[in-house]
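testing teh design pipeline on a random one, pls ignore if ur not involved
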């Protein structure tokens, strides 16, 4: 009976045992099968559920375990087949390509840096879609004009140019204006202080000393009409005619009504008195022919003019 020897499955001879072999060596063939299978798959300690298609996918793999370990855990971290697909057409160092884009974006971009559908010229904003395309959004003149409104004396033309009237300035004393420059035409002027009378000034700008030889701090007061002054005492002289605090009979034909308690200007009345032949009777009348008193007076009674009689009454001078 023919019995081959071997360690792995590839050592087995599919022709053994021959049909003419006896059963005496059948157990040897069985032990050989078991030993080569275990030697070929030493680490399999659980059911293998892979199909022949799954196993055949590995048939063309030429890498090693380290290559496969590079992808270990990437799916759990969120790596998708779509993202891996982005590498399909990569033919050179990705980082180098990114660096090249960064350099271009920081310098002067050419039309080749833009996608055909999103190219343009002018002022605006630039965006990058991370897949090689720049999007340029132009700001037009109408966009600029729409952001501004012209106020008084301001104009915005069709190109967005803002213009306005020039402010007018006039130079005052010691000031000169040339174009947009305003200057002091009389700088560094000397400041001089001059004393007068008992007052003298010494020193120069900015430090001056002002002195006076007049040490009299007393003030002399003189009493006016109806006022007397004695030392620091000021008194009202009630003994004089028309003085504050005195009474007088006053009247005025043009003053239609005199009301008790009201105040009147002395210039509106005249000093008055009474006329009678022998005694007070119906013929007694007021004589309003005196001078005009000064100050302010308060009426002590009430009287009304009539067509033939003028109002008069007793007044107290209050100021």
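output:
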């Amino acid at each position: 009976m023919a019995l081959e020897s071997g360690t792995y499955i590839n050592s087995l001879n599919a022709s053994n045992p021959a049909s003419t072999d006896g059963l005496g060596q059948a157990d040897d063939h069985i032990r050989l099968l078991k030993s080569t299978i275990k030697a070929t798959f030493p680490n399999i300690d659980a059911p293998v559920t892979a199909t022949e298609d799954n196993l055949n996918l590995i048939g063309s793999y030429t890498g090693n375990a380290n290559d496969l370990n590079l992808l270990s855990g990437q799916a759990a971290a969120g790596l998708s087949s779509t993202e891996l697909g982005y590498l399909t057409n990569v033919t050179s160092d990705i980082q180098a390509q990114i660096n090249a884009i960064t350099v271009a974006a920081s310098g002067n971009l050419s039309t080749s840096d833009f996608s055909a559908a999103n190219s343009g010229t002018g002022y605006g904003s630039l965006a990058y879609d991370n897949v090689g395309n720049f999007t340029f959004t132009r700001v037009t003149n109408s966009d600029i004009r729409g952001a501004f409104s012209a106020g008084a004396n301001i104009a915005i033309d069709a190109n967005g140019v803002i213009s306005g009237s020039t402010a007018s300035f006039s130079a005052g004393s010691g000031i000169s204006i040339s174009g947009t420059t305003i200057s002091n035409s009389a700088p560094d002027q000397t400041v001089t202080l001059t004393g007068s009378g008992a007052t003298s000034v010494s020193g120069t700008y900015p430090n001056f000393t002002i002195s006076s030889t007049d040490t009299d701090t007393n003030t002399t007061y003189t009493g006016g009409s109806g006022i007397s002054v004695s030392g620091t005492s000021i008194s009202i002289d009630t003994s004089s005619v028309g003085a504050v605090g005195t009474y007088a009979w006053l009247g005025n034909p043009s003053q239609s009504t005199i009301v008790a308690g009201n105040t009147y200007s002395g210039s509106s009345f005249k000093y008055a008195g009474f006329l009678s032949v022998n005694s007070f009777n119906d013929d007694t009348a007021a004589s309003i022919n005196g001078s005009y008193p000064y100050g302010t007076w308060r009426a002590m009674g009430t009287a009304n003019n009539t067509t033939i009689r003028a109002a008069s009454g007793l007044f107290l001078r209050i100021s």
